[in-house]
Amino acid sequence: MNLLSVSRLTRRGRVDPLFSDISFGLNSGEKIALIGRNGCGKSTLLSCIAEKLQPDGGTVTINKSAGVSYLPQTPAFSANDTIQTHIFKSDNDQLQIIRQYELACEEISRHKIIPSQLQISLDELTQTMDNRALWNYEQRIKSVLTTLGITDLSLSMGQLSGGMKKKVALAQVLVEDTALLLLDEPTNHLDLVTINWLENYLKTTERAVLMVTHDRYFLDAVCTSIYELTAGSLIQYEGNFSFYLEKKAHAEQIAANSEARIESILRKEREWLLRGPKARSTKARARVDSVNRMINREKLAQEDAFSFAVTNRRLGGKILEADSIEKSFMTEGGKKQVLVDFSYKFRKGERIGIFGNNGTGKTTLLNILTGTISADKGSITPGINTVFGYFKQNPDLEDTDETVLGYIQQKAVIITLKDGTELSAARLLERFGISGTAQHSPVNTLSGGERKRVYLVRLLMMNPNFLVLDEPTNDFDIYTMSVLEDFLCEYAGCLLVVSHDRYFMDRTVDSLFILDEAGTVTGFVGSCSEYLEV
Q1: Which residues pair with 10 in a beta bridge?
Q2: Are residues 352 and 473 in the same domain?
Q3: How many Cβ atoms sit within 10 Å of the Cβ of residue 533?
Q4: Which domain holds residue 12?
Q5: pTM for the full model?
Q6: Lowest CB count within 10 Å: 87, 196, 455, 493, which one?
Q7: Are residues 391 and 485 part of one domain?
Q8: Do 373 and 453 fall into the same domain?
Q9: In this structure, are residues 513 and 360 in contact, taking their beta carbons and an 8 Å threshold?
Q10: CATH number of the domain encompassing residue 511
C-alpha cells in the first residue's frame, strides 16, 4: 500500500534551492535512509513531509488511513515538566481521542437525563477507543519507557541527560498508532544498548521508515534503500548501505580509470611541452593551454590526497593521572553515585573509548579528567606538557560576527605535518566541508551543525596532544565523520572518546572504559564490536 507520495518538492535555502523537483514514493514496510552532506536539506525535507515546514513548490500526499509519526533531530520540551506531564501534553491523534472521551464522560456526568446526541458521541468515541486499543495507551508508553531504561516518570525533563531526553521522545513516537515513521537522527545521544534495541525494532516492525542517520552500522542493518540528497537532487539506490558503497566505489573506479588515461596523456604532453615547441599557430597555442589546464588539475588532485599526519606537541613522561576519583550528584530520587574509586595512568598513544548506558556518567568522567569540574574525592594530575583539546557534547558556540577563517586563524594559521609540509586553516576547513564563500561568512550566520564543524576545526588547529571528544559525530554527515576518522587514525597523541557510533569507535579506538550503574569503571582491551560480542 502506498503511504507517501512526494511530487516535485522544492525548498529554497539562503542562496540556492536546498532541493528542487524531488519526487518519490514510500510503500508499506519500506525502510529508507536519507543521506547527504551537512546543509544539503535532509532535515528540511523530513520537516516538509511532516508538515512542520512549507515547501516552496510541489506536493506531499500522505495516505489518510496511515498516519505519520515524526521524531525531530532536537525534540522540544519544557525543563520544568515531569516526564509524565511532557508525554501527556503531546498533541498526537491518540491523545486527542482520549481527551475527547474524557471530556464527553465529564459532560455526561453533569446530566441526570443524558441528551441523545451526547450519548451517540460517547458511543462513537468508545468504539474508537476499542478499535484503536487506546484503553491501555498509558501502560503501553510506560512499557516502552521501561524497555528504554526509564522507570521514574516523576523526574523533570531538565534533569535528564541528552540520551534520556531522546529516549522519552522516541517512546512517544514508537507508541503512536501510525504506519509511517519519520526519524531525524534517531540514534543521536542514545547508548549502544538502546541503539541495538531500536535497530531490532525497526528491522522487525511492519511500519514504513524514512530516516536521516549518520550511523553506518545502523542504517546498513535497517534500511533496504538509500536515497542520497546531493546538489539539490535525489539519487535512489535500491539496496542497503553496503550496496550503496559498492555502487559508489564502482563509479569512483570508472572515474579513476578515466583519470589514469588523462595522466597517460599528460605524460606525453609534458614531454612535448619540455621539448619547447613554438606556440605560433592557433592549434599549438591551444595544445599548450590544454597541457597547462591538465597540470593544474593534477596539482589539485594531489593536494586533495594529502596526509593528516600532524606533528603534535611532545608529551612528557607523565601524561594524566587519576587517583581514587569519586563523584556523586543529588537528584530528585536521592544521591546518585556516578564514579567510585577510579584510578588510571594514561600512557603515550593510548586510544580509549568510553562505553556505558545513558546516565552512567561518561560526560562527567571527561569533565573531571579535563578539569572542567571537580571530583568529590581523589586527585587529577595532568603532565606538564599535556595540552587538552576538549570537544564537548554541547559546546558553547560563539555568536561572533568574525569570519569563519578569521575565527580559526585566531588560534593558528598553519600546522606542520610530519613530512615537513604545512596545512593551512583554509585547507583544513575545506577538508571538513567548509569552503569558498562559507569561509568568509560570519560565524553567527552558520547553522548549528556548521558551527560545530568550525568549532572542531578550530580545536584541531590548536594542535593539542591529548584529544577528548564527547559525542563528536552528532550533527555530522557521513562524509565529515570519514574525514574526522582519517584525521584520528593518523593522530599520534592520546585519544579519549565518547560516541554512540559503533563504526566510528571501531575505527578510532582500541580499548574501552566500561561504566556501569554503580559507578565502577572497568577496562577492556579491544574494539567496541568485540566488546558487544562478548
Answers
A1: 57
A2: yes
A3: 8
A4: 1-67+178-239
A5: 0.76
A6: 196
A7: yes
A8: yes
A9: no
A10: 3.40.50.300
**Count of CB atoms within 10 A of residue 502's CB?**
22
Instruction: Give strand ranges (E) for 213-347.
Output: 225-230, 233-237, 320-331, 334-346
Residues 232 and 248 in one domain: no
**CA–CA gap between residue 519 and residue 326 (Å, rounded):** 9
- Give the strands of the sheet with 180-184, arranged side by side: 68-71, 180-184, 208-212, 31-35, 225-230, 233-237
Backbone angles phi, psi at 114, to 5 degrees: -80, 125
Alpha-carbon distance of 143 to 201, in angstroms, equals 14
Has residue 111 been placed in a domain? yes
Q: For strand 521-525 and strand 320-331, is the pairing parallel, antiparallel, or unpaired? A: unpaired
Residue reference for cell 559525542: 471
d(CA 119, CA 116): 5
Please say which residue of 146, 176, 206 terminates a domain. 176
Closest CA to 32 of 188, 216, 212: 212
Compute the distance between CA of residue 19 and CA of residue 60 in angstroms, rounded to an integer.
Answer: 14
Q: What are the CA-CA distances from residue 200 to residues 190, 192, 478 (Å)?
A: 15, 12, 22
> Mind listing the pLDDT tens digit for each residue in 422-476?
888 998 998 888 887 889 988 888 877 788 889 999 999 999 999 999 999 887 8
Which 3 state secondary structure label does DSSP give 512? strand
- Which one, of 382, 363, 372, 364, lies nearest residue 322 by Cα? 382
- DSSP letters, 47-86, are HHHTTSS--SEEEEEE-TTT-EEEE-SS----TTSBHHHH
Rg (CA), the chain: 28
What span, in angstroms and rounded, lies between the C-alpha atoms of 401 and 353?
36
Q: Is 407 inside any structural domain?
A: no
Question: Which residues does residue 12 pair with via DSSP β-bridges, in sequence order?
Answer: 17
Do residues 227 and 236 lie in contact, with contact meaning Cβ atoms separated by under 8 Å? yes
Contacts of 388 (CB under 8 A, 6+ apart): 370, 382, 464, 466, 467, 468
Q: Which of 214, 239, 264 is the last residue of a domain?
A: 239
DSSP secondary structure letter of residue 417: B
Average pLDDT, the chain: 84
Cα distances (angstroms) measured from residue 47 to each of 140, 174, 179, 224: 27, 18, 17, 22
Same domain, 473 and 462: yes
User: Would you say residue 310 lies in a domain?
Assistant: no
pLDDT over 80 at 348, yes or no: yes
DSSP β-bridge partners for residue 251:
none
Stronger pLDDT, 253 or 342, i.e. the higher one: 342
Question: What gap in Å lies between CA 500 and CA 463, rounded to an integer?
Answer: 25
Phi-psi region of 329 (alpha: psi -120 to 50; beta: other; left: phi over 0): beta
* Contact partners, residue 163, CB within 8 Å, separation at least 6: 189, 190, 191, 194, 358, 359
Answer whether residue 492 is part of any domain: yes
What span, in angstroms and rounded, lies between the C-alpha atoms of 243 and 225?
Answer: 9
H or E segment and range at residue 12: strand 2-12
Both ends of the chain: CA-CA distance in Å? 41
